[in-house]
């Protein structure tokens, strides 16, 4: 975000925008992590969705994260 702030989501789904200086540790994504992610829409181009959805990380590579969303759709999404 602008102005040195980041948006975070806590495990209880509360979202807040805080100064980056408050962040003490960044945790790398791992298989099994729960995420809220944009997804590729089925428009023939694989465009990025305007909304996000909940899912679980299955695999992490250098460029992408393989996510299974809660509706059982699996996709590779860019990091």
Description:
The protein has strands at residues 5-9, 15-19, 34-37, 53-60, 64-69, 74-78. It has 79 residues and is mainly β. It is built from no helices and 6 strands. The two termini are 16 Å apart. The mean pLDDT is 88. The radius of gyration is 14 Å and the shape is globular. The chain has a 4-stranded antiparallel β-sheet, with no helix packed on it. It has a two-stranded antiparallel sheet with strand order 1-2.
Outline of this structure?
With 79 residues, this protein is mainly beta.
Based on secondary structure, the structural category is mainly beta
- Strand count: 6
What is the succession of H and E elements?
EEEEEE
Helix content: under 10%
Major sheet summary line = 4 strands, antiparallel
Which descriptor suits the 3D outline? globular
Query: What percent strand?
Result: 35-45%
Query: Spans with pLDDT under 50 lasting ≥5 residues?
Result: none
Helix segment tally: 0
Neighbour order of strands in the largest sheet: 3-4-5-6
Distance between the termini: 16 Å
CA gyration radius, whole angstroms = 14 Å
Return the average pLDDT rounded to an integer. Answer: 88
Features:
single chain; 6 strands; two-stranded antiparallel ribbon; 79 residues; globular; 4-stranded antiparallel β-sheet; 0% helix
